[in-house]
Request: fold
Amino acid sequence: MTDLEQILLIVGMMVVTFGVRYPILSLSGRVALPNWLKTALSYVPVAVLSALSAPILLMPEGQLDIAIDNEYLLAGLFSIAVAALSKNLLLTIASGMVLFLCLRFLF
Reply:
């Protein structure tokens, strides 16, 4: 792939990304959304986070790994518990990272 093709590819991706998001963002303050749509959209961050993290936790090597030695799964489950109990984002991230690093490099 030549440099020109790479630049055109990046510009094309920028145009597509901007074209998809801009109309929604430009209308966000002007159009009142129905309550059912607001409720449905409130679940989007949780769904996206779940879709991103589930494969990492359950398939760290590309195959399903639900075992006691899967440090990704153990640290993820621990982080979920800390988040549910503390409701503190910084504590959740820090404790999950510390546990993962301990499991990965100490045990």
The chain has two domains: 1-31, 34-105. The chain has a mean pLDDT of 93.
